[in-house]
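From the methods appendix. Each design record in this collection lists the tokenized structure first, followed by the designed amino acid sequence. Records were kept in a plain field format so they could be parsed without special tools. The example shown here is representative of the layout used throughout.

RECORD:
FOLD TOKENS (279 positions):
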């Protein structure tokens, strides 16, 4: 059985390599010498860099531990939206750099940000964790996202330090899993007034964007195959190419229905799995 499964896998993988073309060009390797593989923020930095959401501070450095400023964060969200042209102006007199002027104007007219005062935005000020939560909360509402999630702030020793204006936003951000505690002396703290680093913002952004994605047909099948099938590499493409099935709403629906009827403890061998779908 194992030999037959291995042979089938190898044949399918070879076939896939010949007939399936990638949908996008191969991504290059990150140029940042200060973002090492294995670091807790590596995946997030790679994510924001590959998606053109955050650039390096230089051609070869990302500066993951550098504090993120207010102008940078708003610019990142503006890029997520495709860098739309703002339709109005702002009352802020301290927007000196071109890279964030349009971003701040866009965020202001969409009620995503306010100023520090009525005439200043303070784009160069380091952004705090509660400010990030508030901006993401407003951004999510503006985008029509569900913002009813509620986290338990009482589990953090510094819950009382969250500003009144940021309470609802921080509750949502924790409940949504976008913001988690930061370790201080071995304990998890919200650290609402703490400065957020570029690595932390990259991580929060990745969590937010990924949490908002709708599950595709491919995701559904992959998740079910993860649960039941004794093959770990290329399960989706391998299965549909090996069995000759097509990835359609009807076929996927039938497949998921049959899988859902299996006990949680069942593990299906590859050939038996094909027979199950052929029923």
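DESIGN:
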């Amino acid at each position: 059985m194992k030999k037959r499964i291995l042979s089938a896998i190898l044949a399918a993988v070879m076939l896939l390599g010949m007939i399936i073309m990638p949908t996008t060009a191969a991504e290059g390797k990150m140029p940042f010498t200060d973002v090492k593989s294995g670091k807790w923020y590596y995946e997030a930095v790679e994510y924001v860099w590959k998606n053109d959401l955050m650039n390096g501070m230089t051609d070869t450095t990302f500066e993951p531990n550098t504090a993120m400023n207010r102008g940078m964060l708003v610019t990142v969200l503006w890029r997520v939206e495709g860098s739309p042209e703002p339709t109005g102006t702002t009352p802020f007199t301290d927007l000196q750099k071109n890279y964030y002027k349009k971003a701040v104007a866009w965020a202001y007219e969409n009620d995503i940000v306010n100023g520090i005062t009525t005439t200043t935005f303070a784009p160069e000020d380091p952004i705090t964790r509660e400010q990030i939560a508030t901006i993401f909360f407003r951004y999510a509402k503006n985008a029509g996202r569900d913002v009813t999630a509620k986290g338990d702030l009482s589990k953090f020793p510094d819950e009382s330090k969250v500003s009144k204006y940021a309470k609802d936003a921080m509750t949502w951000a924790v409940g949504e899993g976008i913001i988690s505690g930061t370790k201080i002396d071995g304990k998890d703290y919200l650290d609402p007034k703490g400065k957020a680093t570029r690595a932390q913002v990259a991580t929060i952004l990745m969590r937010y964007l990924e949490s908002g994605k709708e599950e595709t047909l491919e995701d559904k099948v992959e998740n079910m195959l993860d649960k039941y099938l004794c093959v770990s590499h290329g399960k989706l493409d391998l299965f549909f190419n090996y069995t000759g099935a097509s990835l359609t709403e009807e076929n996927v629906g039938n497949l998921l229905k049959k899988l859902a009827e299996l006990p949680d403890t069942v593990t299906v061998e590859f050939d038996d799995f094909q027979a199950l779908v052929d029923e």
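APPENDIX NOTE: Residues 1-26, 228-238 have pLDDT under 50 and may be disordered.
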